Amino acid sequence: MKRLLAAAAVLATFTHAAFAGELTLFSDSNFRGQRVTIDRDAASLGDFNFNDRASSVVIRSGAWLLCEHANFGGRCEEFGPGEYRELPGFNDSISSARQLDRDRGGRGRWRDHDRDDDRGGWRGDDRGDRGGWRGDRGGPDVVMFAGPRFEGPQVELSQDVRALSDVGFNDRATSLVIREGRWEFCEHADFRGECVVLGPGRYDMLDRMNNRISSMRRVR
Which fold does the domain 2-101 belong to in CATH? Predict the structure, then answer.
């Protein structure tokens, strides 16, 4: 019985490790120097005494967004599992990190801030009704609509927008279509505040992000 319980404990540990994303930041290139391991969103690496210190990184699981400013602001790039001996363009300039996906039970969902609140399709999960949108390169990458179900005034975009007020669409999006790429949508300008990452698909309602999107950028 004791052996069975011990085996179950070991299995639980490995199961948790497989599901939970984890990365280790190193202060020097080639995985040298001081290090810090993170297994959850870190809005400020200053909390770990590691702000603007990372020069290499190992990602054991999950896809992570590494950003140059706290609260996931400024320039960000997505990194998948692997070893990164150097960080060109990001050396000593990473201030926050957050996990973009967590594969549970083979579902492969891309989830908003690792929340699982059972509110229909709005979980950054490339929900259905995609039809021919994926890979349809004949139009803009993203179309945002002021009304639900793709109604009302719209704006067509194919590049990062630090402030949607520049295109007359600040806090107006209620539904959207993504033709190509994975995009991060944020409630404040300059990619600040609460953000979600969405992939190709048709999103007929935006739930809690309804009329709250102020900036957007492509992350993949």
Answer: Gamma-B Crystallin; domain 1 (2.60.20)
